[in-house]
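The data are passed on as follows:
___
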Amino acid sequence: MAVLKYSRQREAIKNFLMTRKDHPTAETVYMNVREVYPNISLGTVYRNLTLLSDMGEIKKLHLEDGIDHFDADTHPHNHFLCTKCGTVLDIDYEENEDFQIDDHANSVFDGKITGHITYFQGICPACCKTLV
């Protein structure tokens, strides 16, 4: 396996993602990273996001809005998608000891469940405030 050459642009992309909790799109990453690297191209951002995702250093989220979102937090956790504004947020909670969703799914499925991805939908806190 070839050793990956260090890239300041790739590092800037990863560092930017680590500052965010809103799971930005590639376009958002591009607009922010180009403030530091004005000559970076959108294609370079896409390639580096894909590479970082393939390496397991970030997560690429495929949501039903059809746009890939990126998350620097690679630990297992669930996500919330606001159906009003499209914001993606983390939802961290501990599963009940008596009910583990993977165990339950394995009990009703003939195959082997090895994990799950859950997306919750609804209206985010910011949009809820505008409804009042």
The first strand starts at residue 59 and ends at 62.
